[in-house]
Fold this sequence. Notes:
Elements: H1 3-16, H2 22-28, H3 30-35, E1 38-42, E2 48-53, H4 68-86, E3 90-101, E4 109-114, H5 117-130, E5 136-142, E6 148-160
Antiparallel strand pairs: 1-2, 2-4, 3-6, 4-5, 5-6
Amino acid sequence: MSRPRLFQRILRRAAEHRWLPDGRLLEFYPPFLVMRIKVLEVSPQWRKVRIRLPLNAISRNPGGVMFGGYQAALADPIAALACARVFPGYSTWTRSMQIDFEIGGSSDLELRFEFPPDLEARIGGELARDGRSTPSFEYGYFLADGRRCTRIVNTVAIRPRGYSKATTPPAPEQGVD
């Protein structure tokens, strides 16, 4: 068995048996491990998430600011992961994502995501009524001085477990904090 597959199996087992908190598991996810992210906060069921994305020699583009691809790679799964925790028993994945690079990411960046209670209630209603929902979340990256530099709008597909067009495995049955 190759090392990457073994590492993925270890991470999967750690998640199933809750050996590590969600934030540490995210830091050890291979693409994010290479990016050297630091999870600053993950509230219960992912209703609030803060992650530092460091600006370094690898993440800096020729213009001296953070590569957009680095930002996109980290921002992509966050809303879907949050939906999987808040609504276990459904398959979730990113349906689309829009990124607006408002100003250059000239320092370490902090991704800030919040799951608004009113949106959670709306999604719950749609799931109860239609069995599916496709909400959009707005969040962003912030510079060290607190200014937002990147605006993200991420649309998540929330579908019944076993949905034929699902591209990711479903969330665990039990709620994961």
